[in-house]
Amino acid sequence: MHILVSNDDGINSEGIWALVNELxxxxxxxxxxxxxxxxxxxxxxxxxxxxxxxxxxxNGEFFGYAVDGTPADAVKLAVKAILKDxxxxxxxxxxxxxxxxxxxxxxxxTVSAATEGxxxxxxxxxxxxxxxAPNPDFTFSAKFAVKLAEFVFKNGLPRGTLLNVNVPPVxxxxxxxxxxxxxxxxxxxxxxxxxxDPNGRDYYWLTGKFVNYDQEDLDADHTAVQNNFxxxxxxxxxxxxxxxxxxxxxxxxxxxLQGLDKD
Amino acid sequence: MHILVSNDDGINSEGIWALVNELxxxxxxxxxxxxxxxxxxxxxxxxxxxxxxxxxxxNGEFFGYAVDGTPADAVKLAVKAILKDxxxxxxxxxxxxxxxxxxxxxxxxTVSAATEGxxxxxxxxxxxxxxxAPNPDFTFSAKFAVKLAEFVFKNGLPRGTLLNVNVPPVxxxxxxxxxxxxxxxxxxxxxxxxxxDPNGRDYYWLTGKFVNYDQEDLDADHTAVQNNFxxxxxxxxxxxxxxxxxxxxxxxxxxxLQGLDKD
Lengths: 263, 263
Description:
The structure is a homodimer.
Chain A: E1 2-6, H1 14-23, E2 28-34, E3 53-58, E4 61-67, H2 71-82, E5 90-97, H3 104-107, H4 109-119, E6 124-129, H5 139-155, E7 161-167, E8 177-180, E9 186-196, E10 202-212, H6 221-226, E11 229-236, H7 242-249
Parallel strand pairs in A: 1-2, 1-5, 2-4, 5-6, 6-7, 8-11
Antiparallel strand pairs in A: 3-4, 7-11, 9-10
GO molecular function (chains A, B): 3'-nucleotidase activity; 5'-nucleotidase activity; exopolyphosphatase activity; metal ion binding; nucleotide binding
Subcellular location (chains A, B): Cytoplasm
Keywords (chains A, B): Cytoplasm, Hydrolase, Metal-binding, Nucleotide-binding
């Protein structure tokens, strides 16, 4: 089994290190990841500028390839250039330091790397440890990633669908189980702090609090994790709201040109 | 009717200028847009750095607010800070110079601005002129945007759904009509050119060609536009693949912890 690993916390982060060391016990692993922290970059790709690739060493040993771009860039470059003629059985993005549930999926670089893998036809997994505490222990998440990798390698994933995994930050014996979930209805109630820089000029800084509207619904990703379940959500990149197609067709929208003044 | 306008081509682009001038005939308009070109940024937001806002003048008159961030940043900042106490009836992102159909939706900053508006509860539209030719004529697209704005203002949109509009780059009398479509199955067959910089160091540059797998299906966004229809796709930010939830539940995935060595 040959696994491509990427992330959005950067190639020098603890989460990717823990993941790779555990995966190497059962698979060949190639790491291609952003050289710097790239959180909240969404599905950005670099088209206006070139990309550089540098070998990255850790504790004196070659660890992987550092790309001066986004997570999606790293995955594209891995598949289309660095590993061009090599079979890739699986892509795993992570282990992210921080929660990637509900609306965070939209902003997540971790998920974006797995989305790019999915677009390129590789079964892909995004995995996050759901805590913002400093220096969390990635050991259990990494062990779970190995089990999940073996499961997906054996069972496959339907083309176009990836697994978004969030692991609760509790001791292993407190984890209640695994739940297949939907993207939850939780959102940022955010605002901007208006401040003055040392030269007296205004600047804004985003902050906010996270509000979970799903309450006790354990079928929602965020709630499942809060209740100490490992959450696994199948997500895809078809954003069409199919239910709305018929509604819009019946709304008169397709006749809109008739009202346009053709002069 | 008060309309917030943003884009990803930057506040000084021709597409936003054409859109705003046409919208001002029927509505109050506030422009809050990135100060620079921000194509292919996906749904990136800026959390690690502060944001600046500067008034932007065009032909000696105040045109709008320039934000040194992404399209999603601009919309968040508009709603949560600049227009904090003002009602916003509608958000329009565009007019983008370039096609935003099928897989491009994932990478699009234009769509991202409308997605952020939708997340914040504002009925939102992304509009693109489907050509990469230099200096295209945005006149018809802008007139159509006004008609569509009036339609959405009157009929509303369901919470969580936005309209992604692509206008074919042909003379008005060659446009065949409006079609409500789905996100198409068209993808980039992309590769990287490996080059040497003036100092002899390697760099990679992304390029590729666009391949449409939908053939003649006029219900697909890209094909509709290629056949001179205005394409309108209802898209949402719930990425869950609901069909897969039951499949995964029956696959044994929820029993995966039982196989994990608890030491």
